[in-house]
Amino acid sequence: NAGVTQTPKFRILKIGQSMTLQCAQDMNHNYMYWYRQDPGMGLKLIYYSVGAGITDKGEVPNGYNVSRSTTEDFPLRLELAAPSQTSVYFCASSRQGVFEKLFFGSGTQLSVL
Amino acid sequence: RKEVEQDPGPFNVPEGATVAFNCTYSNSASQSFFWYRQDCRKEPKLLMSVYSSGNEDGRFTAQLNRASQYISLLIRDSKLSDSATYLCVVNIRQDSGAGSYQLTFGKGTKLSVIP
What we know:
The complex is a heterodimer. By secondary structure, chain A is mainly β. Chain A has strands at residues 4-7, 10-13, 19-25, 31-37, 43-51, 54-57, 64-66, 76-78, 87-94, 103-104, 108-112.
């Protein structure tokens, strides 16, 4: 059972480039999330989804986009990368939203130079 | 008040010591409370959920005080392997999007257990 799989693990982007962070889960969870974690800070919610075709903004959505065409996949798109998007990104899923544990992917370390 | 606020730390304790972490939250309507553990450069993992009556899991005890909007985590007989950052997590109503309740993380308290 793979759980939540994130790719890539590391990436360096130049300012203005775009990329997609991939996230897939094999637990048939409806709820999926993208967080970012800056050094010494708590995780901040970027976007979340309560099921295929349904997404909504979290606390820090600017500069990002998401889609949820299937239950399994929840990619995060960065358009026009900026140095402020340098962070560690975590994808997570859960069975019943805020009432049950989050299963996290292993994270993506992104640097924008 | 910040939404989820934790002791700033770091806590440096000897093996065998008892250590307590505190966390306060801003939303009196919050219903879900958790402690997560995060090792350096790793993803967070659930340590334990926090229930109104308090709960215990081996050397770990979590308490919830709804009146004071306060959560605690007590670790007894600390082990070297307990060294990590402990994250307090509470569901808080979001100002953005649909205004739903989402899990909000504190900044974490770093624990180092020293031989």
